Amino acid sequence: MDIQVAERVDTMVNVTVQRWGNSEGIRIPKELREQAGIHAGSMLNAEYVDGTIVLHPISVRTTQIGTYRVPRLEDLFADYNGTYQGEEWQTAPSVGGEA
Q1: Whether pLDDT at 60 is above 90
Q2: Mean pLDDT of all residues in 31-46
Q3: 35 CB contacts (<8 Å, ≥6 apart)?
């Protein structure tokens, strides 16, 4: 199994799939992370192409909320073309002290 962190391979190392709880994962060595510009919390797109697992960094702008960095809603819904009516609140039963 080959692991690539970019379109062209500048560096390739062997890694071991390890069990973490009920999941399995790999650790990406520092040299590869630095070359790809990724760090803990970076989002990656993973795909299986011709017998190879390919990881592509996803560029997501974030905003600070308290101590957390989260994706911006504008970016999460950038490709959404539908409409949202938001009428559930008009037909939902009262659950507390609503006026």
Answers
A1: no
A2: 85
A3: 5, 6, 10, 11
Structural domain boundaries, residue 21: 3-80
Cβ atoms of 58 and 45 within 8 Å: the answer is: yes
Tell me: pLDDT of 73 over 80: yes
Give how many domains the chain has, as a whole number: 1
| Separation of first and last alpha carbons in the chain | 61
Bridge partner list, 65: 68
Alpha-carbon distances of 79 from 35, 57, 59, 73, 74, rounded to whole Å: 29, 19, 15, 11, 9
**Domain of 10: which CATH number?**
2.10.260.10
Q: How confident is the model at residue 76 (pLDDT cuts 50, 70, 90)?
A: confident
11: its two tokens: 């560096």
